[in-house]
Design goal:
Elements: E1 6-10, H1 14-25, E2 30-34, H2 37-46, E3 51-55, H3 63-73, E4 78-83, H4 88-96, E5 101-104, H5 109-138, E6 140-141, E7 145-146, H6 150-162, E8 169-172, H7 179-188, E9 197-201, H8 207-215, E10 216-217, E11 229-230, H9 232-235, E12 240-244, H10 251-263, E13 265-267, E14 274-276, E15 280-285, H11 289-294, H12 300-306, E16 309-312, H13 322-337, E17 344-345, H14 347-354, H15 361-375, E18 380-381, H16 390-402, H17 407-412, H18 416-434, H19 439-445, H20 450-459
Parallel strand pairs: 1-2, 1-3, 3-4, 4-5, 8-15, 8-16, 9-12, 12-15, 17-18
Antiparallel strand pairs: 6-7, 10-11, 13-14
Helix pairs in contact: 2-3, 5-13, 10-12, 13-15, 18-19, 19-20
């Protein structure tokens, strides 16, 4: 749950200090007070305060000077100014000195409490955002790959070992695991980093065109060949060519690719001249190429030429701990793109994601978080914002009811309000679905009065 926010009240009127101490203590804050500006400065030097609530006129020095010193010591300190002598000029000056708000006396107690609560909430959210960004920075490798699981750490070590060499690499793994990111990391950390990196989707080029795309053609070699054209191997000369989904190549092209790999030369379609090429080949596949070789679908000699250094990318379901990091990264990314203020994923949203198998791996997770950011109406992504199948959501909700919290988890602190809110919202939405949006029927299903049903739906921002 965390320690209560520390609030310093500075006012030269004892009755006002005592009143504010009682008022704010009841709100759960840890309240301290100073009777004048000089005492406040001494306290600020010894302690950090989350918020300083100070009168502007203090008798010795002004509240603005107190705020200025507090900001100098800790820029994250929030300042709220109060004064019976309110003018536009004073309010503007207070804001220029970094005050969060200016509250004239006499003030409304509820409005003051709301102002303080909102200011501290924004401070907490900003700290969480910075903490998330810091955690992500620590776990971004080669400027593009996110993860800290043992399987990914082994891959980082392998990239560092092989990047400086010219050796061919075969990256295998399920679709959506990030094989191209690894290929780019190898290229960008090699002495070819400033040379071309050419990506070829072997499964996305028609069979009738793939040889021409790979090796180029000469004018007139076939209908539509109106000029000489370089192939992708020539385009990648002195750099790296990334052959994605290499297992999709036809047997005929496998033969020609083998020759290019062995001889480091290519011959354009319809041409007679051999063209020297200096390329590093990084291939990728979501197939088990060893099995494809056994079944006669892939040439054994080509497999051994490409598979000099193998890298196997683990599926997301085997990367414990990385789901949280990746989710936060994608939430930050799409929050910025969509100009939204999504600052975190709730602990139960993370728990929900960790229990999902992600057959589409990182690509599926990214799409899921993008949709969730787009659809979220709050600055926190909750489980119900995650647009996974209803079957998966039902299993997760049932898991909540049967979940057993161990002692260590409770000692670390659990957000009971969030847990109960999540369960409540799941049942409310399900009841409304079954009742086809009829609140009276939905209330009957949940054994609630219609008034209570309306109140609970209003709390969840359920669409009218």
């Amino acid at each position: 749950m965390g320690a209560p926010h520390k609030v310093l009240v500075v006012d030269d009127e004892q009755s006002m200090r005592e009143f504010l101490e009682v008022l704010l203590s009841k709100e759960g804050y840890s309240v301290f007070d100073a009777k004048n500006g000089k005492q406040a400065l001494k306290m600020i030097q010894k302690n950090n305060y989350d918020l300083i609530l100070t009168d502007i006129r203090l008798g010795d020095i002004t509240g603005l000077e107190v705020l200025k010193e507090a900001k100098r010591k800790n820029s994250q300190t929030i300042g709220i100014m109060i004064s019976a002598y309110s003018t536009t000029e004073i309010a503007v000056e207070a804001m220029n000195e970094g005050a969060y708000d200016f509250v004239p006396k006499p003030f409304d107690n509820d409005e003051l409490k709301q102002t303080i609560a909102k200011a501290l909430e924004l401070k907490t959210l900003e700290q969480e955002r910075k903490s998330t960004s810091s955690e992500l920075r620590e776990n971004i490798h080669f400027n593009r790959i996110i993860g800290k699981s043992p399987g990914m750490k082994a891959i980082y070590t392998r990239i560092e070992q092989i990047a400086p060499t010219k050796t061919n690499v075969l990256i295998s793994g399920e679709s959506g695991t990030g094989k191209e990111l690894i290929a780019r990391a190898i290229h960008e950390n090699s002495d070819r980093a400033n040379k071309p990196f050419v990506v070829v989707n072997c499964g996305g080029i028609p069979d009738t065109l793939i040889e021409s795309e790979f090796f180029g053609h000469v004018k007139g070699s076939f209908t539509g060949a109106v000029a000489d054209k370089k192939g992708l191997f020539e385009a990648a000369n002195t750099g790296t060519i990334f052959l994605d989904e290499i297992g999709e190549l036809s047997p005929a092209l496998q033969v020609k690719l083998l020759r290019a790999v062995q001889e480091t030369t290519v011959k354009r379609v319809g041409g007679t001249r051999e063209v020297d090429v200096d390329v590093r080949i990084i291939s990728a596949t979501n197939k088990k190429l060893e099995q494809e070789v056994i079944e006669g679908n892939f040439r054994e000699d080509l497999f051994f030429r490409l598979n000099v250094i193998p890298i196997k990318v683990p599926p997301l379901r085997d990367r414990k701990g990385d789901v949280k990091l990746l989710s936060k990264h994608f939430a930050e990314k799409y929050s910025a793109i969509m100009n939204k203020d999504i600052v975190k994923l709730s602990s139960y949203a993370i728990d929900f994601l960790n229990k999902y198998s992600f057959p589409g791996n990182v690509r599926e997770l990214e799409n899921l978080i993008e949709r969730s950011v787009a659809l979220s109406s709050t600055n926190i992504i909750l489980p119900e914002s995650l647009t996974i199948s209803m079957h998966m959501k039902r299993r997760w909700v049932e898991g909540i009811k049967d979940r057993r919290f161990d002692l260590a988890e409770v000692e670390q602190g659990v957000d009971l309000d969030e847990i109960l809110s999540t369960i409540e919202q799941s049942y409310l939405k399900k009841a409304m679905e079954i009742a086809s949006g009829n609140k009276s029927k939905a209330a009957d299903y949940l054994k609630l009065s219609l008034r209570s049903m309306r109140y609970r739906l209003d709390k969840t921002d359920y669409p009218e």
